[in-house]
Amino acid sequence: MQFDQVGADALMEITSRPDLVFVRGQGSWLEDHNGKRYLDMIQGWAVNALGHSPKNVVEAMCKQASELMNPSPAFYNAPMMELAKLITQHSCFDRVFFANSGGEANEGAIKLARKWGQLHRQGAYKIITFEHSFHGRTLATMSASGKAGWDTIFAPQVDGFPKAKLNDIDSVRALVDEKTVAIMLEPVQGEGGVIPADPAFMQALRQTCDEFGLLLIVDEVQSGMGRTGKLFAYQHSGVEPDIMTLGKGIGAGVPLAALCAKESVSCFEHGDQGGTYNGNPVVTAAGVAVMQTLTADGFMQSVNERAQQLSEGLLALSAKWGLKGERGQGLLRALILDRDDGPALVEAARNRNPEGMLLNSPRPHLLRFMPALNISKEDLDQALQILDALIAQVRS
Ligand code: PMP
What we know:
Layout: H1 5-9, E1 22-26, E2 29-32, E3 37-40, H2 43-46, H3 55-67, H4 78-89, E4 95-99, H5 102-120, E5 126-130, H6 139-144, H7 150-153, E6 163-164, H8 169-173, E7 180-185, E8 188-189, E9 195-196, H9 199-212, E10 215-220, E11 243-246, E12 257-261, H10 281-294, H11 299-321, E13 326-329, E14 332-336, H12 342-351, E15 356-358, E16 366-369, H13 377-394
Parallel strand pairs: 3-15, 5-6, 5-7, 7-10, 10-11
Antiparallel strand pairs: 1-2, 2-3, 4-12, 8-9, 11-12, 13-14, 14-16
Helix pairs in contact: 3-10, 4-10, 11-13, 12-13
The structure holds 4'-deoxy-4'-aminopyridoxal-5'-phosphate.
Residues 45, 101-103, 106, 134-136, 186, 190-191, 219, 221-222, 247 line the site of 4'-deoxy-4'-aminopyridoxal-5'-phosphate.
């Protein structure tokens, strides 16, 4: 493939590397338009839960596409019903709405909570969210997010998202008033720097919600679908949220997300929520294949084995190079650096020859790892070896 400069210039700017174009991917490996291979430790921000082009997902989509691509958004279809059934069977939720992105699923969660507030809490509408959180790039989800700078660039914000501090229940309780309808959090803050919510904090949030009649919303767009070593991250804490959103891994690379709710909260009626592509059978067929893989015997055990390998490998590197340890849950982990050379390591990894590696540094003092859930032991070992060499190179 030739690099197409005219085409690149015709795109709105969404990348810092417009010259890097990938043309092929298989498992944990990507290939760019020059034929260079990259070991992928971010998998499109945890999207490709089963690596690039997983065979069973591709086959399920091709079969569905050849049978029926889109009956009409006005009707249910077989894969969307099957996927809704599988999600409800494996979670504490009763109802599912399929969205096209994590941001759209969260937008739906906010709407659902607000409607519930109109119906049951005299118009309460405020949703307490958290500093450094990330919920998407629609106007409401940006307003819900605790990302610095966004409050002014796209002003005015959507009203009603006071920000508390993660793992600090007093900071949450101080914000609750008669207009509060819900508390919304990522069980592991992803973009914020891979910071898990403590199980005790999750339990305190549930108690606070029960005490004041609030809904607990978990944004599992990044932490869900096996990423943290359980099917859904809330399951680590023993608490049952009222609403959960899913995205990224649920479609293994295609645009699919979900809004899940308990029956008692599920108050959307025909016309409240929806759109042309919601629940499209080709993407929900991908979701069914993903759920079947994740719930197959032994799959989550192997995710936890790889997570342990990654955690131990990062700890060993930390000890060797005098870094500040590692943290995370399952295969969503971060290496904490002792200086702000995360971006330099990401750059060096990409530029490495003959094979590169894709890393991510959501904050300059850390590297985030989100490999395929089915990454091989060998590929993960190789990634850790390359990382060791990169630290030596960048710090020499
Ligand atoms: N919520 C969380 C926790 C996320 O990590 C992301 C994406 N990084 C989103 C929502 C937004 O998802 P999408 O990009 O699919 O809209």
